[in-house]
Design a protein that fits this description.
four-stranded parallel β-sheet, alpha/beta, 18% strand, binds the ligand Cc1ncc(COP(=O)(O)O)c(/C=N/[C@H](C(=O)O)[C@@H](O)C(C)C)c1O
């Protein structure tokens, strides 16, 4: 459960046993024929896999590169999150759990958890900070429409970190019958490697699709990094290939307001955060991103390790650059991306403009429907 000096399981004693139980269940079922065929069935018939890879002709010509998008925004629910919630919910069922709990910030993971709770008829509770409930009302309504209980968390910053703490406190009391469905490749072992496993379907498909379309592997794979699940899900299948990995972190407004622990933190000491040893933004930095999905002060431990190894590069993309890319993809290709992958699109454009990479595969991990309110405030198109 470690990634070099990062990762591990740093939790209060009462969580040790339940998390080891989860790790044992994961190790037991992950290669189980029946589990895999049930997961494949739902990924195909419920989630809509495989998602396409799309060649962005206008953007490619504009920047003299070959830019491809893994169309993960077409997955049921509008983001990559369902890959992970399906896998974990089916695992929880096999482990005899009767209840799901989850944290959410942007509400995409919460929605994807409510979807599998409804689909598989499992009682579901989603913890969400009051601040996030106010700025993602439609996702709250979607979760409740599907029968999930959305618990408002009103402590501290009323954001994602507080929602995670509330979920962990619930788990300590309820782990006998409850599975905590973690939304990204973060937290104590086994969560980072389990979420990577369930998201790695993205890269497995894309690697075959791009060889088919382009006749070769790409030079680079680019993805936005909040907790890090869509990025590791795209990259894992390419890990032994001569393919560069670029992570777009939320550079926010300036050095004092961002959520970019890998590209904008002064300290280089890892620290323990929500059960994992990883990188966290500096104390005097305010956690901020225009996109709720990237608004997270830490990052998954495998990304900290990939950076330390030099296997992946992480670049901060500001709110402004992300909004510009959001608008550019909309008008150049007729695809409205979520604000989260807009950070990856901005980075891909930079790499193409600087002639650093020729063939670039970008993870388009969410669609922009949920961001129309924010976008309308930023762009006066009347
Ligand atoms: C459309 C979309 N794209 C990317 C992300 C970032 O999550 P990762 O892929 O795990 O880095 C997210 C993250 N969403 C989480 C959520 O909906 O709860 C996020 O808000 C929290 C994990 C911070 C997302 O919604």
């Amino acid at each position: 459960g470690k990634f070099g000096e990062f990762g591990g399981r740093h939790v209060p004693e009462p969580l040790e046993e339940p998390l080891q139980g989860l790790a044992d269940a994961f190790d037991r079922f992950v290669d189980d024929e029946e589990f895999q065929s049930e997961l494949s069935y739902y990924l195909k018939h419920f989630a809509g896999r495989p998602t396409p890879v799309f060649y962005a002709e206008t953007l490619s010509e504009r920047y003299d590169a070959e830019i491809y998008f893994k169309h993960e925004d077409l997955l049921h629910g509008g983001a990559h999150k369902l890959n992970n919630t399906l896998g974990q919910a089916l695992l929880a069922k096999r482990a005899g759990k009767e209840r799901l709990i989850a944290e959410t910030g942007a509400g995409q993971h919460g929605t994807a958890t409510a979807m599998v709770g409804a689909l598989l008829d499992i009682d579901t509770t989603v913890y969400m900070g009051r601040k996030d409930i106010q700025r993602q009302e439609m996702n709250v309504f979607r979760m409740r429409l599907m029968g999930a209980d959305v618990e408002e968390v009103t402590r501290g910053n009323e954001g994602l970190a507080e929602a995670v703490d509330a979920a962990l406190e619930d788990l300590i009391e309820s782990y006998e019958d409850t599975h905590y469905l973690v939304g990204s490749a973060v937290g104590p072992d086994p969560f980072p490697r389990m979420v990577r496993e369930f998201q790695s379907v993205i890269g497995e498909e894309a690697r075959e699709q791009i060889k088919e379309l382009h006749g070769d592997l790409p030079d680079a794979c680019v993805a936005c990094v909040g907790g890090g699940s869509n990025a590791i899900g795209l990259w894992h299948a390419f890990k032994d290939d001569d393919v560069a990995f670029y992570g777009a972190e939320p550079g926010g407004i300036d050095d004092a307001h961002h959520s970019a622990p890998l590209s904008k933190t002064r300290k280089d000491e890892p620290e323990i955060f929500q059960g994992m040893k990883t990188k966290v933004i500096d104390e005097d930095t305010e956690n901020h991103s225009v996109s709720a999905g990237l608004d997270y002060p830490a990052v998954g431990p495998e990304h900290a390790a990939l950076q330390a190894l030099g296997r992946a590069e992480y670049h901060a993309v500001s709110d402004e650059e992300a909004l510009a890319a959001f608008r550019e993809l909309s008008e150049s290709e007729g695809i409205i991306p979520a604000l989260e992958p807009s950070h990856a699109i901005a980075l891909a454009i930079k790499l193409a403009e600087e002639d650093r990479q020729d063939t670039i595969l970008v993870n388009l991990c969410g669609r922009g429907d949920k961001d129309m309110q924010t976008a309308a405030e930023k762009f006066d198109l009347s």
